[in-house]
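Page 37, continued from 36.
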């Protein structure tokens, strides 16, 4: 008898859940779509990919997948300097490369985390 009661209670919960109106809730913001061709993942010891080749006027996105915080900054002598704000876990930084050339960069808090972006015309 107890099993039958639990079964009916579970069935009633499923029916009630199915009757709610999801359109009455706030519509969530669209999830940004990242492309492996323009996205760099920051880890605890490296970036992936370490070398990224893009065309001019392409926006590159860095995403911090590490539990630690990171700041991405271009090395001295790059065609156009950039520095991200402090990136906490799962935060992102974007930079649009408008000047062709080779950009080397590193993590300000861990210089061993390095990468290169080659921007074609």
């Amino acid at each position: 008898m107890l099993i039958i009661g639990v079964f009916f209670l579970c069935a009633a919960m499923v029916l009630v859940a199915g009757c709610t109106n999801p359109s009455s809730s706030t519509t969530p913001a669209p999830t940004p779509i990242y492309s492996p061709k323009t996205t760099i993942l920051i880890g605890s010891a490296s970036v992936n990919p370490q070398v990224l080749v893009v065309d001019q006027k392409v926006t590159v996105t860095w995403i911090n997948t590490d539990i630690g915080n990171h700041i991405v900054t271009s090395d001295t002598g790059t065609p156009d300097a950039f520095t991200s704000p402090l990136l906490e876990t799962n935060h992102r930084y974007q930079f649009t490369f408008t000047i062709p050339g080779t950009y080397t960069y590193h993590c300000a808090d861990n210089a061993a985390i390095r990468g290169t972006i080659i921007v074609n015309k």
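Strands lie at 39-42, 47-48, 51-55, 58-64, 72-74, 92-97, 101-107, 110-120. Flag for discussion at group meeting. The radius of gyration is 23 Å.
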